[in-house]
Amino acid sequence: MVEGAGKLNAKWSGNMGEEQTGKGHGARLDPVTPNPLMRFDGYYLLSDLLGLPNLQDRAFRFGRWHLRETLFGLGDPPPEGASPYRRRILLGYAYATWIYRALLFLGIALLVYHLFFKVLGIFLMAVEIIWFLALPIYREVGEWRRRGAEMAWNRSTRRSALVGGLLLLALILPWRGTLTLPAVHRASAFQAIFPPSPALLIESLVTAGKRVDQNEPLFRLIDPEIDRELERQRREARLAALELSRQAGDPERLEQRLVLEERLEKARCEIRRQQKRQEQLVIKAPFAGRIQTTAEGLTPGRWVGTREELAYLVAPGKSEVIAYLGEEDIETAKPGDRGRFYAVDPALGPVEVVLKEIDPAPVQQFGHNDLYVASTHGGEVAAKRSPEGQVVPEKAIYRLRLELKDTPLTIDQAVRGSLALNVSAGSGVLQRGLQRAWALLIRESGF
Predict the structure, then answer these.
(1) I need a labelling partner for 214 at 20 to 30 A (CA). Which of 42, 226, 237, 281 fits?
(2) DSSP per-residue letters across 45-103
(3) What are residue 294's phi and psi, to 5 degrees?
(4) pLDDT digits over 154-207, tens only?
(5) Domain 177-188+317-444, CATH number (from 2.40.30.170, 3.40.50.720, 3.40.50.300, 2.30.42.10)
(6) Which of 124, 71, 131, 61 has the alpha carbon at shortest distance from 101?
């Protein structure tokens, strides 16, 4: 067998020499695959270098023997006689190959799932996992069951039972841990300022950083359509009033007077409605605070829409920390859990916080301060832009509201950072893993 392997490798080497020098009739340069963990060029090179023909089969037999002896102590002799050095080589190769192939086949399964349409992708991924990963494990476990009568309590089985029991407890029992979450330290009262309706900007009375009082005018807008409608209704009211004055003394036109009175009242109601809309175009501060930001290019004569943020107003006073928790960890955090907020700027120092509440529904879109944690703005939470231009999270996340443990700080701008939240897991690692797998299955099955 050794001689045959030597001839094979010599022939392979000779062909490589011809191909590299370009000599020989019909010479061809084939790519060399140096990976020794698969049956390619690197495997035969390693086999020849170690002087171990049929390396893979021999290593796998040693690996299965070593695994069974370690777990159950069956007392079987080694598959073949080998020195301690060669035995370590065979075992190392076997375990390295098994780990490599498990990762490789799992990667291929994920690849085929994403390359094909969902139904075919799920089928191909299932075939890949069952055939290349689950089936070899099933066969080995079947061999254990077949030899169950040979197993007895000994040092190996007691050790395996102890380790298995400790591992099972570690997976089932809840553990106290720390969640690291993206977070923002911001003022408790804030508001984005938007136009009440599409309108023409006449005057901007604020700039970024300016402090304003409650009900102080911020922007003056006009809507020509409101002015035209207001003038039309006033004209309608004057005509209806004039007609009523002419028929005041004619008792035979009572029915016509009722119609005119109704027209007059309708016009007056519409005038009041348009006047109220006109008053709303003078945008005032809803509370006293500081203008944190203003939109760019707010020059007189510019049209602004209802989705265009003109300014962002922040009230001085106590602040809060907002953190963002993934759906898979929603059961671990409870009101009352304590944590610490770390700002991006280390000069600000940590802030002790207490979890006050968790929003009952996931975040549908990011608001002004939420953008600090969105990936579209350099944050850690995966997000994308919707067709309407809104920034939305790519997966379900929940907003956590935390209050400062000590005296609240006065802050007039948002500070990005991270929250280290101490949580007492309500379920073990195994249960949470199964919950995540089930949630993933539900989400991916919606085709």
Answers:
(1) 226
(2) HHHHHHT-TTHHHHHHHHHHHHHHHHHH---PPPSS---HHHHHHHHHHHHHHHHHHHH
(3) -130, 155
(4) 998 999 999 999 998 888 877 667 888 999 888 777 788 889 889 999 999 988
(5) 2.40.30.170
(6) 131
